């Protein structure tokens, strides 16, 4: 006799309670599957759309060395997108369907990639702050309860750490340069600081998904916990760099053992998530055009795979 739904649920609950992993072959509640598809797809889309702001500077990198580094980083982001789409496919949804949902505006990508990159210092700031925030958020996801997602995150986090260091090294080099270069770095940090804090999502009391996602072990920490961790990690790095973080309320609180900091503009985050950020329309138009221009590659690859399979059968 097949196990009852109650028995399957009990076995799922026990796996979660033991911090063991749920694997694709295991029974899982529909809500758990949907939450994972939502979060992993959003993450995958973020990696692919996230190639655009930095990709903007590949043809204008200041030296061959910087160009090679930037090309490698942007290629890594494409790779992260692919690992994540693959992890998502284990939940019974195809990559083609996920891309359609993104293009139809039914799935999201990270707010941070809707801000423009106005100078080469932004390449460094994205590495330092945006990859830094991504690492804070993603290291705990290596222990997420869904096996394929956690395993993809382990590999991604290793590469993200390298990305963060390349950004910091670029900014450090600029800070050791001319007054003009130092001003470029400060101006870039001023623009990216608050949007980086918004990457962690709305505050906990306005985060509809956190409670259930944490109960299922999909998320291991709340949005505010991770935001605090990021601020505490970044302040000493800013001091070492010699840049100011644009928050008059930022100070060490000895009692809490953490930095206090100002409130991000949550209305801005809502507007950006709803599609009204500075670059939303541009990012989606570019993604749509890339998808359409790539149609012949997908067709050719599919035809080649079918022919190879036929030949193998013969
Ligand atoms: N942007 O209830 P919550 C990278 C949405 S790193 C857009 O708190 P949740 C690396 C949220 O989806 C960036 N939407 O949601 C890189 C939900 O809407 P929904 C990607 C946001 O899921 C670096 C609603 O608001 N990282 O790409 C944002 O529990 C450099 C309510 O929010 C990940 O995706 C936002 N910032 O927590 C690449 C990490 N925040 O779906 C290139 C994995 C919230 O119900 C260059 N994801 N929303 O319609 C997560 O950890 C979580 O999904 C959160 C949101 C923390 C982002």
TrEMBL record:
Keyword vocabulary terms for this entry: Oxidoreductase
Pfam families: PaaA_PaaC
Enzyme class, UniProt record, top EC level: oxidoreductase
Gene Ontology MF term list: phenylacetyl-CoA 1,2-epoxidase activity
EC number: 1.14.13.149
Record InterPro entries: Aromatic_CoA_ox/epox, Ferritin-like, Ferritin-like_SF, PaaA, PaaA_PaaC
Full protein name: 1,2-phenylacetyl-CoA epoxidase subunit A
Species name: Actinoplanes sandaracinus
Gene behind this protein: paaA
């Amino acid at each position: 006799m097949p196990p009852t739904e109650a028995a399957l649920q009990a076995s799922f609950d026990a796996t979660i309670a033991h911090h063991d992993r749920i694997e694709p072959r295991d029974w899982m509640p529909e809500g758990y599957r949907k939450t994972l598809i939502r979060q992993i797809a959003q993450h995958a889309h973020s990696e692919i759309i996230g190639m655009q702001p930095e990709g903007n500077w590949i043809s204008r990198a200041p030296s061959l060395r910087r160009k090679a580094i930037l090309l490698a980083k942007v290629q890594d982001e494409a790779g992260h997108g692919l690992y994540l789409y693959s992890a998502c496919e284990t939940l019974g949804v195809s990559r083609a369907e996920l891309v359609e949902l993104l293009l139809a505006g039914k799935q999201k990508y990270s707010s941070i990639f809707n801000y423009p990159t106005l100078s080469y210092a932004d390449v460094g700031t994205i590495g330092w702050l945006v990859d830094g925030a991504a690492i804070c958020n993603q290291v705990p996801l290596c222990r997420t309860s869904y096996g394929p997602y956690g395993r993809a995150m382990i590999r991604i986090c290793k590469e993200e750490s390298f990305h963060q260091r390349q950004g910091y090294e670029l900014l450090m080099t600029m800070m050791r340069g001319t007054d003009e270069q130092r001003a470029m770095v400060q101006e870039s940090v001023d623009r990216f600081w608050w949007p980086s804090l918004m990457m962690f999502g709305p505050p906990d009391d306005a985060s509809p998904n956190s409670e259930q996602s944490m109960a299922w072990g999909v998320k291991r920490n709340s949005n505010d916990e991770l935001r605090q961790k990021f601020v505490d990690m970044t302040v000493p790095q800013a001091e070492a760099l010699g840049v100011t973080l644009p928050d008059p309320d930022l100070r060490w609180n000895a009692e809490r053992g953490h930095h206090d900091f100002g409130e991000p503009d949550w209305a801005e985050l809502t507007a950006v998530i709803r599609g009204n950020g500075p670059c939303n329309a541009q990012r989606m138009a570019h993604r749509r055009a890339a998808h359409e221009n790539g149609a012949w590659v997908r067709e050719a690859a599919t035809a080649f795979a079918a022919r190879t399979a036929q030949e193998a059968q013969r």
